[in-house]
Write a sequence for this structure.
């Protein structure tokens, strides 16, 4: 079976700040990032939709010890965001000094941008990831 | 299905910078298990092995075959399992099925890792391979980062001030080091204090160095046998009475349950049901404390505390010997060490020795323990649970 929304398509859209997901025609559930079948009911009758790219920060961490090849990026802040449409996705938080990010960031509204991870010797090519910035000043 | 017994085990010291190769560590633990079980290598009918990063750490794949040859188990089937940090427990669970089915009477389960040979940057990179390479690693996920986010989510979800949670987490590490100091196999055999944990360098907020288990080298092995064989070889057989396993996707995909880990709740329910026990029957538990917060989250899923309250168990000493549910009396992953492929087998080895009453000399015997629980987590979400029992 072919993918409705494969990773390359998802990542290429994200590079244009478009967040794609899947809406299940059987149960209405929205899955993002995409999987082959609906995460809720396992139906493969899904349609590709564009999500708003806005949501609320649910949790975060500021990482000081980075993996090999990414040391220059540290410190950086990783967040999990609950999208307006329901699903949570992971990405990085920008526009705030990572050292200053604390529990007060939880619940803040954010909107989506992107940054491309070029990949390393253990990756199968580049991958765009969400880059979130806060909608209001905190 | 036949009852399956753990009849003996072997365990190297867990450490950083072991002078031995991974194969040597694996062979030493395996031979100790064979000798302690009063059998010979020719009695082993199959080998089940756990090893996760041998290709990265030593350029060695397929170590299970070389191990079998190394210890004289010639031409036996040799199979390797991989489930990140849960690898060893998956090997035990699957090996047990071959004995339970009647195919084999005696098998060796062994696991090894030489993680420190990679150095911290490559080790951090390879451990991050147990998160999603499409949706997590591009954002810089590391393994501590996963549990760091769970810690912040836990504090927010249960309305616990972060400072309070951090203090409870520190108590987890302090207890692990307390028992690690008594365990001759432990990587860290020294006591620490809450102040020391809270004064350590930050790895990824809110986790500090002493909230995290170390990279480790080491091996562990156990021999599994049918009940009939076990009764001939030992007067203290310990049985694998229940097992369960469940898997899940990347962390964000689990959003409807977080900070609860649904896979663990499913896996442990299977194990409890199969063994005919509940959390109240567990006399001693080894759970997957890769990070201090991981212990708190695990204890709740396993049924030892209400959700949002397990930190109190460590704060009040309920997880120590003499407490409500003694947990990680080995020192856990934190102090004993965490050589991935060996970790689950080390947990089974530890619980077996507790149920056989062999730890009195080390001053960490849970007296009269009859039922024990093993809990191991791999990556974003493989969980394996085993219930061990003696008659
Ligand atoms: Zn559906």
């Amino acid at each position: 079976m072919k993918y409705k929304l494969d990773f390359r398509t998802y990542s290429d859209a994200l590079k244009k700040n478009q967040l794609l997901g899947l809406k299940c025609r059987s149960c209405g559930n929205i899955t993002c990032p995409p999987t082959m079948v609906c995460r809720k009911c396992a139906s493969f009758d899904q349609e590709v939709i564009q999500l708003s790219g806005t949501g609320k920060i649910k949790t975060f961490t500021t990482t000081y010890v980075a993996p090999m090849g990414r040391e220059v990026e540290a410190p950086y802040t990783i967040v999990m965001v609950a999208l307006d449409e329901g699903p949570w996705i992971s990405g990085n938080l920008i526009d705030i000094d990572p050292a200053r990010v604390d529990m007060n960031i939880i619940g803040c509204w954010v909107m989506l941008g992107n940054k491309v991870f070029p990949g390393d010797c253990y990756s199968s090519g580049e991958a765009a990831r969400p880059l979130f910035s806060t909608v209001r000043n905190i | 299905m036949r009852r399956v017994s753990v009849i003996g085990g072997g365990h190297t010291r867990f450490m950083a910078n072991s002078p031995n190769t991974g194969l040597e560590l694996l062979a030493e633990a395996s031979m100790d298990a064979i000798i302690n079980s009063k059998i010979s290598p020719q009695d082993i009918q199959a080998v089940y092995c756990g090893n996760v990063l041998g290709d990265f750490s030593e350029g060695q794949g397929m170590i299970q075959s070389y191990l079998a040859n190394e210890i004289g188990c010639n031409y036996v089937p040799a199979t390797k399992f991989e489930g990140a940090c849960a690898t060893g427990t998956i090997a035990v669970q699957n090996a047990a099925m071959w004995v339970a089915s009647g195919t084999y009477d005696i098998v060796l389960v062994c696991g090894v890792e030489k993680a420190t040979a990679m150095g911290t940057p490559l080790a951090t990179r390879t451990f991050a391979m147990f998160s999603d390479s499409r949706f997590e690693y591009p954002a810089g996920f590391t393994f501590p980062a996963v549990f760091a986010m769970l810690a912040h989510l836990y504090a927010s979800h249960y309305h616990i001030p972060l400072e309070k949670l951090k203090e409870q987490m520190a108590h987890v590490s302090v207890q692990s080091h307390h028992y690690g100091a008594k365990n001759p196999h432990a990587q860290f055999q020294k006591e620490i204090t809450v102040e020391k944990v809270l004064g350590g360098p930050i790895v990824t907020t809110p986790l500090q160095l002493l909230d995290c288990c170390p990279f480790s080298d080491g091996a562990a092995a156990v021999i599994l046998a049918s009940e009939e064989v076990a009764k001939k070889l030992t007067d203290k057989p310990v049985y694998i009475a229940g097992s369960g396993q469940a898997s899940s996707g990347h962390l964000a995909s689990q959003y409807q349950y977080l900070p609860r880990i649904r896979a663990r709740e499913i896996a442990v329910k299977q194990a409890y049901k199969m063994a005919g026990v509940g959390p109240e029957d567990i006399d001693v538990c080894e759970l997957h404390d890769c990070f201090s917060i991981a212990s708190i989250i695990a204890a709740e899923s396993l049924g030892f505390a209400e959700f949002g309250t397990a930190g109190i168990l460590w704060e009040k000493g309920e997880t120590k010997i003499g407490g409500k549910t003694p947990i990680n009396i080995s020192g856990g992953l934190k102090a004993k060490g965490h050589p991935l492929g060996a970790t689950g087998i080390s947990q089974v080895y530890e619980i077996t020795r507790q149920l056989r009453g062999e730890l009195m000399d080390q001053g960490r015997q849970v007296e009269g323990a009859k039922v024990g629980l093993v809990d191991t987590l791999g990556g974003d979400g493989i969980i394996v649970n085993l219930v061990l029992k003696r008659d």
